[in-house]
């Protein structure tokens, strides 16, 4: 029996802690590269201001890094505490990229982050620069392995079910590691982090310019942010498109839901720019279409067909029937392990075993399910269309806005006019929250869009939970909310305090503060 | 390709190495955190004491992250049962570990003494709680934990946090706490100037006998007072991982009848000798040797527990057949093999650059330096 209260609470807890973790991680990913670039300029030119820049932004990096590390441990532990059956069911495959992340990347970044702060007087310039670059490299490698694990949840390649151990086992690690979904996700996600880091530096520097403080410091910082941010914003949109293309192949339902594409259209399909998706009627009201665009983006051809939601539901119903055959054979094998006929039947249909579990998820025995049960289970694979539709559109709009803002910043920087236009500085300042909005919405599109699956086509989320009680999860959830809110307040307080103090207020740049008091 | 049985033994040893790595490397951070208010009396002293661990605690904590990741990948059933079964205990550890970085990187950022004092308490708690709970968890392994599997290997657990806090587990928790306090003091003696260093030396003189008495007490209780588990018949060491394929007997003695009980006793003797040696070395100003002895002691104590438990990883008191052993809780041969390659390639690299970082940071943290420096961290 699946206790849906436990499932919902566990999902809510995972979502909150993951979204919270993802407030800090992209800033770590992006800011560390800015630090490495600034310090490289310092080592190449020997000009002290670049060292101060690295150190000042480094203080803000440090506050953020600690929170990223702390909240990341929660996520790793949570697979075990709240998703125990998931951990058993896929640990053979899913655990490996996490462990390799620790060995290859996390050790590197966490070991060198201390030397970044405490090594200024103990290391030569070049040695310290190497440390900073290793730190930057470590953070991005870390993202690579985490996203390889995540990509396997979206597109579970290189593994098959083993009836003796009742779990998924690896057949090919190279397929798991070189999962096409992992590669596009990796570049898309780290680019999003780079955009966020660039915006962070751009916005706070714009604030200094508006106040007439730290002028040289802020202009240099903005120049770095504008160039790095422009490259990253272009990459995030282009690779976002690549991500879209890979989900066309592997997660057709997610794509159809993002586009609110209820019925299969004749190719090339139109892109819905705007509309109000209506789940009950399976229709999108007031839709504004752009002909051809969706077919071209999704299939990169004029004749590729993108299946609509209704057609995908029908296909799912067929898979559920297949899965039921595998499920029935599995029950026979459990009573008699030498039943050759059942084993052959199981092997032939086991790829769809997960679809039979869609019935178990609704507390229906797959052996005795009626056709109505099957169609109900098939319907339950439609994700939350309006949430995906809107999350995706806001995220993409942000992406194009970032390109425009960074391109304009870059143009101003190259004309040395960054401090001339106050309206621009205000826009740059108030754009600060947008990359966070885009990043969190991106997470929602990717992970909420995967529902009802924990592992696409293999394990429904509801079946992955631990055998804990709803009251236990309530307690931990409330604990996390109180705890994380307090930490967020403290973290934000310190960030604002140090950003306000600025390099002049911290006495890091005495000449500067003498020239520009205030 | 290495055969499945050997791979399981290797990964059982590696599990011990990774957990011992955590206990040694992050153990002194926990010990220092727990003793921050005891070893250091004013703000300058506390900043100096904390600066002995601030540059490296993040790297040290990765031993835990990697340990958990390796359990996930190599012992998925152990990961699933231990983490969800010890639900609130794990959450307490987690909350403590989340607070710790706040303590380290937020404490010095505001000068108000109330702010700093509050964080010092937070740091103390964040050191004591994990040290205690890890020991309590190890103590419970010997008693068995109330879980069972159904035939789809879905686990159910019948117990709560209070059930974990029996007298024997609390005693083991005490051993674990004192062990890490001692290890922290050995670090403070090595890295701190007077008056912190000598204070740590004096404390070592109290902690060492206390640890030996508690450790011997726990060992005697284990040897004579706790029923052991044993696999019935010959274990199928290379069979697919399914705990339900075996039978388990309850009865007999953990050390006397255990497969590696003799080894466990030998390790225990070494651990006691090392525990006795740490304060003696420290008093003679051999601080580096004292710290190394302390690290080896932590290693020996942890392995003595692991060897005493072999071949069990996590016995079940509710349904002994469901117990997890080295032979039926691992991941597939393929995964164990690949993970072994990854460890063989990366572990030497990790040890090399970690050593380099500690070399760069060598020497004592001076109070003069603390008074003069603007902390960038």
UniProtKB/TrEMBL annotation, chain A:
Coiled coil: none annotated. Pfam families: Cyt_bd_oxida_I. It is a multi-pass membrane protein. GO terms for biological process: aerobic electron transport chain. The chain crosses the membrane at residues 20-44, 56-79, 99-119, 126-148, 186-210, 222-240, 390-411, 423-446, 473-496. One of its GO terms (molecular function) is heme binding. InterPro entries: Cyt-d_ubiquinol_oxidase_su_1 (IPR002585). This is Cytochrome d ubiquinol oxidase subunit I. It comes from the Bacteria. Keywords: Cell inner membrane, Cell membrane, Electron transport, Heme, Iron, Membrane, Metal-binding, Transmembrane, Transmembrane helix, Transport. It is found in: Cell inner membrane. One of its GO terms (cellular component) is cytochrome complex. Belongs to the cytochrome ubiquinol oxidase subunit 1 family.
TrEMBL record, chain B:
Coiled coil: none annotated. GO terms for molecular function: electron transfer activity; metal ion binding; oxidoreductase activity, acting on diphenols and related substances as donors, oxygen as acceptor. It is a multi-pass membrane protein. It is found in: Cell membrane. Keywords: Cell membrane, Electron transport, Heme, Iron, Membrane, Metal-binding, Transmembrane, Transmembrane helix, Transport. Pfam families: Cyt_bd_oxida_II. The chain crosses the membrane at residues 12-40, 86-106, 118-144, 164-182, 203-224, 260-282, 289-314, 334-358. GO terms for biological process: aerobic electron transport chain. One of its GO terms (cellular component) is cytochrome complex. Belongs to the cytochrome ubiquinol oxidase subunit 2 family. This is Cytochrome bd-I ubiquinol oxidase subunit 2 apoprotein. It comes from Dokdonella immobilis.
């Amino acid at each position: 029996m699946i206790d849906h209260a436990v499932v919902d609470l566990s999902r809510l807890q995972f979502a909150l802690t993951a979204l919270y973790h993802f407030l800090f991680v992209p800033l770590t990913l992006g800011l560390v590269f800015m630090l490495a670039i600034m310090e490289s300029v310092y080592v190449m030119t020997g000009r002290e201001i670049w060292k101060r820049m690295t150190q000042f932004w480094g203080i803000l990096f440090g506050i953020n890094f600690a929170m990223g590390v702390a909240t990341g441990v929660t996520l790793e532990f949570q697979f075990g505490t709240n998703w125990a059956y998931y951990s058993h069911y896929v640990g053979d495959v899913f655990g490996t990229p996490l462990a390799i992340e620790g060995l290859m990347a996390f050790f590197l970044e966490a070991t060198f982050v201390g030397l970044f702060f405490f090594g200024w007087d103990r290391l030569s310039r070049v040695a310290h620069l190497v440390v900073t670059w290793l730190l930057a490299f470590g953070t991005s490698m870390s993202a690579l392995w985490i996203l390889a694990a995540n990509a396997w949840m979206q597109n579970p390649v290189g593994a098959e079910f083993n009836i003796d151990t009742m779990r998924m086992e690896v057949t090919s690690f190279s397929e798991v590691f070189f999962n096409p979904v992992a590669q596009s996700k990796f570049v898309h996600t780290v680019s999003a982090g780079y955009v966020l880091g660039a915006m962070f530096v751009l916005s706070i520097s714009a604030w200094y310019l508006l106040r007439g403080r730290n002028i040289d410091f802020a202009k240099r910082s903005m120049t770095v942010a504008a160039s790095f941010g422009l490259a990253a914003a272009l990459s995030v949109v282009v690779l976002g498109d690549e991500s879209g293309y890979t989900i066309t192949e592997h997660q057709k339902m997610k794509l159809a839901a993002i586009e609110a594409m209820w019925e299969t259209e004749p190719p090339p399909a139109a892109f819905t720019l705007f509309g109000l998706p209506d789940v009950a009627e399976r229709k999108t009201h007031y839709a504004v279409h752009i002909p051809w665009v969706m077919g071209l983006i999704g299939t990169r051809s004029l004749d590729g067909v993108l299946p609509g939601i209704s057609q995908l539901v029908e296909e799912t119903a067929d898979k559920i029937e297949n899965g039921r055959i595998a499920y029935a054979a599995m029950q026979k094998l459990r009573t008699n392990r030498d039943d050759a006929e059942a084993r052959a039947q199981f092997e032939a249909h086991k790829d769809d075993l997960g679809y039979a579990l869609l019935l178990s998820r609704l507390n229906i025995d797959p052996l005795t399910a009626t056709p109505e049960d099957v169609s109900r289970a098939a319907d339950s694979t439609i994700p939350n269309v309006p949430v995906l539709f809107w999350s995706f559109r806001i995220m993409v709009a942000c992406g194009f806005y970032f390109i425009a803002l960074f391109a304009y910043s870059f143009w101003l920087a190259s004309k040395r006019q960054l401090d001339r236009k106050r309206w621009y500085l205000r826009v740059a300042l108030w754009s600060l929250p947008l990359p966070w909005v885009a990043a969190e919405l991106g997470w929602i599109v990717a992970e909420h869009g995967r529902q009802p699956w924990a592992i696409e086509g293999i394990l429904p989320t509801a079946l992955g939970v631990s055998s804990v009680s709803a009251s236990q999860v309530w307690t931990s959830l409330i604990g996390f909310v109180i705890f994380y809110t307090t930490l967020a307040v403290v973290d934000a307080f310190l960030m604002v305090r140090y950003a306000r103090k600025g390099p002049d207020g911290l006495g890091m740049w005495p000449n500067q503060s003498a020239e520009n008091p205030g | 390709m290495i055969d499945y049985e050997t791979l399981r033994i290797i990964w059982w040893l590696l599990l011990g190495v990774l957990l011992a790595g955590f206990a040694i490397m992050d153990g002194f951070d926990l010990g220092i955190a727990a003793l921050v208010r005891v070893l250091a009396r004013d703000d300058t002293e506390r900043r100096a004491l904390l600066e002995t661990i601030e540059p490296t605690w993040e790297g040290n904590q990765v031993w835990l992250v990697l340990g958990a990741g390796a359990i996930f990948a190599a012992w998925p059933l152990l990961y699933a049962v231990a983490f969800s079964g010890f639900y609130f205990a794990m959450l307490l550890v987690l909350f403590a570990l989340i607070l710790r970085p706040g303590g380290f990187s937020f404490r010095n950022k505001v000068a108000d003494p109330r702010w700093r004092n509050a964080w010092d308490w937070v740091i103390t708690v964040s050191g004591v709680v994990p040290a205690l709970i890890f020991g309590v968890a190890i103590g419970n392994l010997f008693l068995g934990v109330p879980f069972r599997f159904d035939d789809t290997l879905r686990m159910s657990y019948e117990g709560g946090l209070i059930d974990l806090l029996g007298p024997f587990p609390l005693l083991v928790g005490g051993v674990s706490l004192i062990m890490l306090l001692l290890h922290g003091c050995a670090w403070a003696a090595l890295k701190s100037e007077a008056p912190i260093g000598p204070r740590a030396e004096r404390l070592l003189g109290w902690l060492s006998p206390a640890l030996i008495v508690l450790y011997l007490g726990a060992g005697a209780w284990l040897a004579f007072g706790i029923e052991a588990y044993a696999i019935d018949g010959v274990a199928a060491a290379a069979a697919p991982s399914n705990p339900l394929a075996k039978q388990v007997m309850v009865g007999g003695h953990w050390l006397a009848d255990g497969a590696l009980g003799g080894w466990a006793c030998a390790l225990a003797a070494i651990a006691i000798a090392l525990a006795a040696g740490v304060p003696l070395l420290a008093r003679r100003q051999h601080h580096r040797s004292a710290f190394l002895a302390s690290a080896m002691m932590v290693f020996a104590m942890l392995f003595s527990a692991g060897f005493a438990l072999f071949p069990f990883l996590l016995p079940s008191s509710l349904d002994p057949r469901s117990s997890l052993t080295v032979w039926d809780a691992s991941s597939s041969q393929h995964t164990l093999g690949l993970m072994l390659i990854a460890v063989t390639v990366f572990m030497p690299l990790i040890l090399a650059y970690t050593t380099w970082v500690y070399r760069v940071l060598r020497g004592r943290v001076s109070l003069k330096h603390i008074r003069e420096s603007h902390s960038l961290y």
